[in-house]
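Example 3.2
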Amino acid sequence: MFERQEKLSILLLVGVTLVVISAHLVLTYVGKQPFARTFSDTCPDGELVSIEGPIDQITYTKDGDYVLLRMGNTTVFTPSQHILTLGLKKGERVLVYGIVQTYHGKKELVVNAPEDFHRIS
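Structure, written as tokens:
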């Protein structure tokens, strides 16, 4: 059978696995809101932020794979499939979570999952 050190190693491995699974479930349940701050031009690249407001403009890239959403003075960059899947339209009010990125000297939000868009009624 197993030696004492092997039993301890297996026990530690199972314990760490349970902690990681539990943390994943808790963070999934809690969502991004507690970790995101409101977007501003002073936010550093790589920070999780949120922005809320109406979609002022929807522009597809030349190849059609991505969309640029204008929300006020902010650009939101996301795969076009997200917009098509969610059926978002100009004028809709949304809450968006994304990562700050500087593109051509201007801050924008990059959104990687459709779950990061929330309609506001």
